[in-house]
Amino acid sequence: MPFRALIVDKAEDGTVTPAIQSIEEDRLPEAPGESVTVDVSHTTLNYKDGLCLTGGGGLVRKYPHVPGIDFAGTVRSSEVAEFSPGDPVVLTGWRVGEAWWGGYAERARVKGKWLVPLPEGLSAAQAMAVGTAGFTAMLAVMALEDHGLKPENGPVLVTGAAGGVGSVATAILGRLGYEVVAVTGRPETGDYLRRLGAARILPRDEINETVKRPLESETWAGCVDAVGGAMLARVLGQMKYGCSVASVGLAGGAALPATVIPFLLRGVNLLGIDSVMRPRADRIAAWGRIARDLDMDLLDSMTVAATLEELPALGPKILEGGVKGRVVVAL
Ligand code: NDP
């Protein structure tokens, strides 16, 4: 039976165009190693999907291509012993949707070892409401905890707070009892962020300026940073002694116009967070924490539904910082 796939193709003049096509299973490229074919029930939209839908960032090298860096669904057929037809599974990362065909199709074929069993207590739709953005937010919180973060240490900053990573980080930290200070460039999202768990909103303009002094008042006990650039440089100089920033994203830029003074004089730590090549054991642990520490009603409140047809328009929108919270697509 043919199935629907959102296929992005590149014309000779370099134009990248997404279109929904009906394709047969034999068009699914082989996966590297023993594979599992999945009936995809849900997918989502991340910043990287915006790049893959529009041909940005040089992420997709081979066309035609099916984007979608995350998906959830049930196993259709399996070459690995761990999975059997009907098993609910979730996939994030491993360059699926970039180097390999991804979740913007009703069927996907991937390396079996890349799949994680759908965590107990989460539906496929909830797993996609979390998606790479939320999974990475959880990894960031776990890294901060591993470096000593505790609620009594003081306020924790979340940058890019109204975006996907930021919304989930705010909700998790709020639920864990932290005083969350949410940085946003969209003042209209203030009520939304407070409902998620932010104690205070910090307008982006107040923290987005270039570093003038390498050290400012010691203010933050931790930070989940989705923005990078000038904002991250500024935050480093405002960290309390010995505290850590989890660097997750670059929505505000890849450059880091900072000095090393916060590292040398305050023992500040900059923790790199990668979700893509993360070992499987960490993935299972993080999904377990998500099922435990993320309030599912709050997750619902930060999620909007979209269709496969709407994804081509949503791609450019997320790149402009115009998507609030998380998007779930039922296939
Ligand atoms: P979103 O677009 O949903 O969120 C990004 C948010 O950053 C926006 O909502 C906006 O928040 C803020 N923002 C956007 N542009 C700027 C700017 N120019 N200056 C300051 N703030 C800005 O994306 P995601 O949450 O999905 O991803 C966030 C980042 O994390 C991306 O760079 C993404 O590539 C990265 N990422 C990295 C992962 C990893 O493994 N390391 C995994 C997942 C994501 P507001 O409106 O509140 O200001």
From TrEMBL:
**What's a Pfam family this protein contains?**
ADH_N
The domain of life is Bacteria
Please list the residue ranges annotated as the Enoyl reductase (ER) domain. Answer: 14-329
- List the PANTHER family hit by this protein, alphabetically: ACRYLYL-COA REDUCTASE ACUI-RELATED, SHORT-CHAIN DEHYDROGENASE/REDUCTASE
Q: What is this protein called?
A: Acrylyl-CoA reductase AcuI
Recorded name of the encoding gene: acuI
